Amino acid sequence: MEKFAGMLFPHIAAGLAIDRPDGYSGHGAGAMAHFSEQFGVCLLHFATDAKPPSAC
């Protein structure tokens, strides 16, 4: 994750990575309802706020 962030984030206006949160596994974990309940509000703010959050 550090290598990815170091390469990408200097070149974009904002970035947010949710990197392997506890309780989730596999490629489809982000499609789980619990993922949306846990991170949905933060992701909405990241996508819509003038100054997005830097962490969830």
Which bin fits the share of residues in helices?
40-55%
Question: Total domains, how many?
Answer: 1
Our count of helices gives 2
Span between N and C termini?
16 Å
Low-confidence stretches: none
Q: Main β-sheet: number of strands, strand sense, barrel status?
A: none
Structural class: mainly alpha
What is the gyration radius calculated from CA atoms?
A: 12 Å
Number of strands: 0
Mean pLDDT: 85
Percent of sequence in beta strands: under 5%
Written as H for each helix and E for each strand, in order along the chain, the element string is HH
Shape from CA axes?
flat
Textual characterization of the structure:
There is one protein chain. This protein has 56 residues and is an all-alpha fold. It has one domain (2-48). It is built from two helices and no strands. The chain starts with a helix and ends in an 8-residue tail after the last helix.
Tag the structure with descriptive keywords.
56 residues, single chain, flat, mainly alpha, 0% strand
Question: What is the topological layout?
Answer:
Layout: H1 2-8, H2 33-48
Q: Could you give a short description of this structure?
A:
This protein is an all-alpha fold. The protein has helices at residues 2-8, 33-48.
